[in-house]
């Protein structure tokens, strides 16, 4: 019996991203709205647009694939519980966690530390409860991000850009497109809260690259 070759996670993600970038869908974090008529606890402040060239740390070689287990971002006080694997909704949007404090990772993409852009997402707030990524827009270039992995290693990332985009103009290629090394994206909602639509107008994205491991 012949074997069916299964592409690597990075290759599968490149194929998925290629389809999305061709216009079949936009992978955008569309959640961060409260499930009930609850005013959000706060709205995030606009994030600084920092050129990628300002990155202060050199990248290191990608690691073997290994599922992420926990996230720490010391500069904004994030120390997550177990991560939740996320997929896509029927209309091609990134799924979101069902509560304020859970952080999810996009399971159809690379695992954090492996080659390509791994994606972690969480709420800025949810049903009146501050979310794990409430202060994501306050991150700065040079901030460290730590992702504990199932193989026992911890991948260390350094932020090189913090950006905020209208959801109507989300840069899918820039966020999800292939990268020469191991990178990470942290995504949440931001901007003004639309009471009618019950969601935020923007997305905040932190771009980071792998700079070490412990």
Automatic annotation (TrEMBL):
<dbReference type="InterPro" id="IPR005754">
    <property type="entry name" value="Sortase"/>
</dbReference>
<dbReference type="Pfam" id="PF04203">
    <property type="entry name" value="Sortase"/>
</dbReference>
<dbReference type="InterPro" id="IPR023365">
    <property type="entry name" value="Sortase_dom-sf"/>
</dbReference>
<keyword id="KW-0732">Signal</keyword>
<feature type="signal peptide">
    <location>
        <begin position="1"/>
        <end position="30"/>
    </location>
</feature>
<keyword id="KW-0378">Hydrolase</keyword>
<dbReference type="GO" id="GO:0016787">
    <property type="term" value="F:hydrolase activity"/>
</dbReference>
<protein>
    <recommendedName>
        <fullName>Sortase family protein</fullName>
    </recommendedName>
</protein>
<dbReference type="InterPro" id="IPR042001">
    <property type="entry name" value="Sortase_F"/>
</dbReference>
